[in-house]
């Protein structure tokens, strides 16, 4: 994982569920086929209701990657299905970190164990302070979020006991480092 | 300080005397379940990480139950079935319930129980969020993703954070119009859609232990809808009878200690429960059915792992017998066994299937069908602005297909009563 994550914010509300992140009808493309798996990027967040996205689609028409790099959300991000396609789709779309107040357990775990993105948590309700399109910078080593647009800084919650898995780049790398598997 | 049932199961499976909430442990897995949607991804990661020629850790402990997108012409869905079929063959998996053969079963969570794969005291993981269903059998059961599934396939182990346990006790006798769905929708509504995040939800009390296994499964299934890591009900004589009828495997009956620590407790008077509906777009958006009588419906859907079991159709048939539905009503048996029961179970000489057909319902084939949208030709899937009352477990935007179709969740009694009137209807009108 990079020491610094930079990019534009995409801001959403509470309870963003896995059907909104990647609707069930799109769970059929091969995850391990480079060309086909781009479709997960194309359809990332395609289940968001119109009122949630307004005039700023996450993925522009005809594109497979988003111009946004960091998702800012409220409570209970990733609730619902166990589909690992959800963090996978966000990663395919170019998302490197999600910053939410808290997460549904399986999404959080899939993000970490699959090594797709960093699921940060914050005490503060950032969706009231950060706007879609704001230029953000995360200092991964210090756990600090800087909003370059508003010049504000926020302390992210420590990653705790999943930090080693994130640093290793996922569960398999972690298990290899620990000699749990060959 | 004693341990809760979940703490005891996880301690035993991690070789420890005692475990404490918040602690991370590596557990030995008894059963890994996967299906046609998450199976191919899981298998691909397994082969990538362990090698193309690697063997799974135990070919008798992986249960493969394709069920999500079976009766469709969608070429990608059919490709998924071929993929898991090839893997099952190559790995010589003992339990592969293959579609389009006599061995096909239907919805994984119900099939697992019916085929004897759910047993007290065990650890079961599945690459499906509703794997928690099996907590009804007094085991630790939870949903995971592809990477975790692949790790188990290769090693038979997984890391688990020990969850805190929340306890929901239902005292007294349940009224005849209350089903497992009403109980769990009441609880989710009370604690909130994320009220049990990372926690185990233990259900007990005489009302819970008076329920059939199918009804208990409905309750544990939806613990995930409150963010729960798992739901659990201590095993009793009803559990033992159900399990022993389906498997010869030995199992261990564990129970919470008297002095176990719960992070939350709530006691309900079961006699006061009323039929509950979850309004769009969250299973936690609770309202009593009687307060929603002005909601006009276009469709009623009775099916899925939480609403398509035999007990669910017996309930629906009690209301639909001798009546006609006023709106499109879809009946989807969860499994082939449930489907058979539609012909076997009779009221006054009339089978459940005959009752449904005569009432004007459309009866589908056993599978997940429209519970989660799926390919456009899926039975019962929404395409426009249909207002749906459904016995399924989730009502997120677009869940049953169309983003513009609001979904109300309810018990089979309420869904059947509403099918008759065309409006959300408290089933007490008919019971």
From TrEMBL, chain A:
<feature type="domain" description="Aconitase A/isopropylmalate dehydratase small subunit swivel">
    <location>
        <begin position="67"/>
        <end position="117"/>
    </location>
</feature>
<dbReference type="GO" id="GO:0016836">
    <property type="term" value="F:hydro-lyase activity"/>
</dbReference>
<dbReference type="InterPro" id="IPR015928">
    <property type="entry name" value="Aconitase/3IPM_dehydase_swvl"/>
</dbReference>
<dbReference type="InterPro" id="IPR050075">
    <property type="entry name" value="LeuD"/>
</dbReference>
<dbReference type="InterPro" id="IPR000573">
    <property type="entry name" value="AconitaseA/IPMdHydase_ssu_swvl"/>
</dbReference>
<comment type="similarity">
    <text>Belongs to the LeuD family. LeuD type 2 subfamily.</text>
</comment>
<protein>
    <submittedName>
        <fullName>3-isopropylmalate dehydratase small subunit</fullName>
    </submittedName>
</protein>
<dbReference type="InterPro" id="IPR011827">
    <property type="entry name" value="LeuD_type2/HacB/DmdB"/>
</dbReference>
<dbReference type="Pfam" id="PF00694">
    <property type="entry name" value="Aconitase_C"/>
</dbReference>
<dbReference type="InterPro" id="IPR033940">
    <property type="entry name" value="IPMI_Swivel"/>
</dbReference>
<keyword id="KW-0456">Lyase</keyword>
Automatic annotation (TrEMBL), chain B:
<dbReference type="GO" id="GO:0051539">
    <property type="term" value="F:4 iron, 4 sulfur cluster binding"/>
</dbReference>
<dbReference type="InterPro" id="IPR001030">
    <property type="entry name" value="Acoase/IPM_deHydtase_lsu_aba"/>
</dbReference>
<dbReference type="InterPro" id="IPR050067">
    <property type="entry name" value="IPM_dehydratase_rel_enz"/>
</dbReference>
<dbReference type="InterPro" id="IPR011826">
    <property type="entry name" value="HAcnase/IPMdehydase_lsu_prok"/>
</dbReference>
<feature type="domain" description="Aconitase/3-isopropylmalate dehydratase large subunit alpha/beta/alpha">
    <location>
        <begin position="289"/>
        <end position="422"/>
    </location>
</feature>
<keyword id="KW-0456">Lyase</keyword>
<dbReference type="InterPro" id="IPR018136">
    <property type="entry name" value="Aconitase_4Fe-4S_BS"/>
</dbReference>
<dbReference type="InterPro" id="IPR006251">
    <property type="entry name" value="Homoacnase/IPMdehydase_lsu"/>
</dbReference>
<feature type="domain" description="Aconitase/3-isopropylmalate dehydratase large subunit alpha/beta/alpha">
    <location>
        <begin position="7"/>
        <end position="285"/>
    </location>
</feature>
<keyword id="KW-0411">Iron-sulfur</keyword>
<dbReference type="InterPro" id="IPR015931">
    <property type="entry name" value="Acnase/IPM_dHydase_lsu_aba_1/3"/>
</dbReference>
<keyword id="KW-0004">4Fe-4S</keyword>
<dbReference type="GO" id="GO:0009098">
    <property type="term" value="P:L-leucine biosynthetic process"/>
</dbReference>
<dbReference type="GO" id="GO:0003861">
    <property type="term" value="F:3-isopropylmalate dehydratase activity"/>
</dbReference>
<keyword id="KW-0408">Iron</keyword>
<dbReference type="GO" id="GO:0046872">
    <property type="term" value="F:metal ion binding"/>
</dbReference>
<protein>
    <submittedName>
        <fullName>3-isopropylmalate dehydratase large subunit</fullName>
    </submittedName>
</protein>
<dbReference type="InterPro" id="IPR033941">
    <property type="entry name" value="IPMI_cat"/>
</dbReference>
<dbReference type="InterPro" id="IPR036008">
    <property type="entry name" value="Aconitase_4Fe-4S_dom"/>
</dbReference>
<dbReference type="Pfam" id="PF00330">
    <property type="entry name" value="Aconitase"/>
</dbReference>
<keyword id="KW-0479">Metal-binding</keyword>
């Amino acid at each position: 994982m990079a020491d610094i994550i930079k990019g534009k914010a995409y801001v959403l509300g509470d309870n963003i569920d896995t059907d909104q992140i990647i609707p069930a009808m799109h769970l059929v493309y091969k995850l391990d086929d480079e060309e086909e798996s781009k479709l997960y990027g194309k359809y990332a967040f395609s289940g968001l209701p119109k009122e949630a996205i307004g005039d700023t689609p996450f993925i522009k028409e005809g594109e497979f990657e988003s111009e946004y790099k960091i998702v800012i959300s409220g409570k209970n991000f990733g609730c619902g299905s166990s589909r690992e396609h959800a963090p996978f789709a966000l990663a395919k779309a170019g998302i490197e970190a999600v910053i939410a107040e808290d997460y549904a357990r399986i999404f959080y775990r899939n993000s970490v164990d699959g090594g797709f993105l960093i699921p940060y948590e914050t005490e503060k309700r950032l969706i009231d302070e950060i706007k879609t399109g704001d230029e953000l910078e995360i200092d991964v080593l210090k756990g600090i979020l800087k909003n370059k647009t508003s010049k504000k800084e926020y302390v992210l919650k420590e990653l705790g006991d999943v930090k080693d898995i994130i640093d290793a780049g996922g569960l398999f790398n972690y298990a290899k480092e620990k000699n749990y598997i060959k | 300080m004693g341990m809760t049932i979940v703490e005891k199961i996880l301690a035993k499976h991690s070789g420890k005397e005692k475990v404490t909430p918040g602690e991370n442990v590596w557990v030995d897995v008894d059963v890994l379940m996967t299906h046609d949607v998450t199976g191919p991804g899981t298998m691909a990661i397994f082969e990538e990480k362990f090698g193309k020629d690697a063997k799974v850790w135990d070919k008798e402990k992986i249960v493969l139950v394709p069920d999500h997108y079976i009766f469709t012409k969608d070429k990608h869905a059919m490709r998924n079935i071929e993929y898991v079929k090839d893997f099952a063959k190559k790995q010589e998996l003992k339990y592969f319930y293959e579609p389009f053969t006599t061995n096909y079963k239907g919805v994984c969570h119900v099939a697992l129980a019916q085929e004897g794969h759910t047993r007290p005291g065990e650890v079961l993981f599945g690459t499906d969020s509703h794997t928690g269903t099996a907590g009804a059998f007094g085991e630790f059961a939870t949903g995971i993703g592809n990477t975790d599934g692949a790790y188990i396939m290769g090693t038979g182990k997984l890391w688990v954070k020990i969850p805190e346990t929340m306890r929901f006790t239902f005292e007294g006798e349940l009224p005849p119009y209350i089903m497992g769905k009403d109980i769990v929708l009441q609880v989710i509504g009370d604690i909130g859609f994320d009220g049990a995040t990372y926690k185990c939800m233990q259900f007990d009390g005489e009302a819970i232990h008076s329920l059939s296994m199918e009804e208990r499964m409905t309750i544990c299934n939806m613990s995930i809808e409150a963010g729960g890591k798992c739901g659990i009900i201590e095993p009793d004589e009803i559990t033992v009878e159900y399990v022993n009828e389906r498997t010869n495997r030995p199992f261990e009956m564990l129970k919470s200690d008297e002095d176990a620590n719960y992070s939350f407790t709530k006691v309900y008077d079961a006699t006061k429960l009323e039929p509950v509906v979850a309004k769009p777009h969250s299973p936690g958006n609770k309202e009593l059915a009687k307060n929603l009588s002005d909601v006009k419906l276009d469709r009623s859907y009775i099916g899925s792992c939480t609403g398509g079991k035999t007990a669910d159709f017996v309930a629906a048939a009690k209301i639909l017998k001798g009546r006609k539905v006023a709106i499109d009503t879809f009946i989807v048996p969860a499994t082939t066994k449930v489907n058979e029961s539609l012909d076997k179970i009779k009221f006054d000489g009339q089978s459940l299937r005959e009752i449904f057909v005569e009432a004007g319902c459309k009866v589908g084939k056993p599978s997940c069908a429209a519970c989660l949208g799926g390919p456009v030709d899926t039975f019962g899937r929404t395409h426009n602005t249909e207002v749906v009352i459904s016995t399924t477990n989730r009502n997120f935007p677009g869940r049953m297909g169309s983003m513009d179709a609001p979904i109300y969740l309810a018990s089979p009694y309420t869904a059947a009563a509403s099918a008759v009137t065309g409006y959300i209807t408290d089933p007490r009108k008919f019971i």
